[in-house]
## 1
Amino acid sequence: MSKSVVTRLFIASLIAFATGAVIATTGVVLAIANDVFVIAGSELVGVRGGALAWSLLGLGIVGGLVIAGGLVSGLVAWIGALLNTWQLESKTWFAVLLLLGIFNLGFFAMLAYLIAGPDGTASSGRRGTPAAVTA
């Protein structure tokens, strides 16, 4: 997977995550504004049923699914970056991406890779082609 594909996939995952968060937040805010939740003191004690409640629940579920899709897409972009950097002779970028991803700092590792990381597929094409032999 080339660096440009990893970049597009990672940016798409960020957009999907943000869109899902907006959708889910909109559902919750609309539910609060329309008194769908029954609140006693500081506790949520019930939900008023009806078409609006079910619609807003559906909106929250759609938002959650879009967030999950964004997270999965980000994971696929990270794996693509790992596979891309594995092809390099120096394994420094691979080790940095792997360790930061394991320690839950993969977002920052991906940002660093997208800004300054090498493209392993660009160098692998030159490395594997034999030189022309003239007789």
Note: The first strand starts at residue 37 and ends at 40.
## 2
Amino acid sequence: MSKTSTNREIAVEMWFLTLIDNLEKHEFFATGRNYRKTLCSLRKFADTEKMNISDITEDTVSAYHAYLARRRACRNTISFYMRILRAACNKAADNGYMAPDNIVFDSVFTGVDVTRKRALDTATLKRIARLDLPLGSEMDFSRDLFLFSFYTRGMNFVDMAHLSQDNISHGILSYIRSKTGQSLSMEIEPCMDSIIHKWQKYATNGRIFPIITETKAKKVFEQYQYRLTRHNLMLKEIGRLVKTHFPLTSYAARHSWASLAQRLDIPLSVISCGMGHTSERTTRIYLEQLDNSKIDKANRRIIRSIFD
């Protein structure tokens, strides 16, 4: 497909850098990072300083897709780059740098493949909990964060990183999921309380865990990314010590809670509500009427199963 001419021209390199700069100015650092990753990939595919954004047509997109496939990028990685490129092209069209007719991504994959869930069995969770690690070490901290995530129905690392004393009141832990904006609350079980008291003395700025110490937005994001990388490195080593069948990551705690809940015959509606799922409309309607004490009771059963 040949491109349709426009009155304005801008190089792919300059357009992406402009978008990244704007995102970072508005403190959308994670999205800016995604655009930066895509730009790095595009630089390997073509000369982004000489190629204008209006040069990106259906043929260009197909060639880029084929290039990524030849480099054995997985389908989700290819889709990631394609979605970012499509968003950049849409913004370019809005600003008159390319014609909307040029933005054709129908021939390439832009969805999300369902990956195999990596859940741990009860025996492995027990080995992790009982693992003899140097007290106060980085690995000890990562093990405790992993268990805390499991005990809190699969709390994500980003939400643990930003937990503060304000999230605790009268034995209840409440927080808003960063991913969905959904408000969740739960009773603080003794195993959770033990981990909180063990590490909060090292935390700063009123936070519960010593993950984030910076205060400026960009520094907070950079420190978070570093801590998450270190956390997963420590978990990988812990997984090696307890002989997991796959590289252990922070997401395994969430998958493990859901898997164990299912094995204990806990209703799907309770599991969904406990994990803060919001993707199923009919489930959401039903869960609005679900007593939170039922979820706490279910969570207590799950936690006790690894201490038996």
Note: The radius of gyration is 23 Å.
